[in-house]
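Annotated sample (chain length 147).
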Amino acid sequence: MDKYFVNDDTHTVELDDENWVKIKRQLSIADQDKLGELMLNIEMDTNVDSSLSRGERRRQAREKGTSIKSATMRPSTAAILQVSIVEWSFTDPHGASIPITPTMIGRLKTEWANLISDEVDALNPLPVQANQSSTYKPSPDDQPLSQ
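Output written by the structure step:
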C-alpha cells in the first residue's frame, strides 16, 4: 500500500534543547493542492500609480494603455509550514500547549520558520522551492492590454 499512498511518518526538527517540530515526511496530493492554494501570490508590475484606488487605477490603465512588465509567483514559507507541521512542543507561559494554527505559524520568527521550511524542502522537493521565484518577462512581441 505504501507504494501508492502517503504514510503518516513524521520527521522531528530539533530547534534547541527544549523545542522541536514534527513535520510530514511526505506530502500527499491533497497537501500539494492545499499548498498551491495558499502559496500563489502574483504581483504584477504595470505603469499605473499604485497609490490610487482600484477604480482610479483601472481608469488610468484604460487611458494610458497598460502592459504587464512582469508577474512574479512567490511561494509562502507560512503556506509550506501550514501543510507540513503536524505537532510541536511550544507551550505558553502557563505550560499549556500552543495550538498549531495559521496565526501561530505566521508568528514564528523567520530564522526558525526558515529552518523548518528547509527540512520540509529536503524531504519533499516542491514544484517551486520556497527560496525560488519564477518571473514572467514579456517578449518584444507582447502587445499592451489597450491602446
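Annotation: Strands lie at 10-14, 20-24, 42-45, 70-73, 85-88, 134-136.
Annotation: The longest strand covers residues 10-14.
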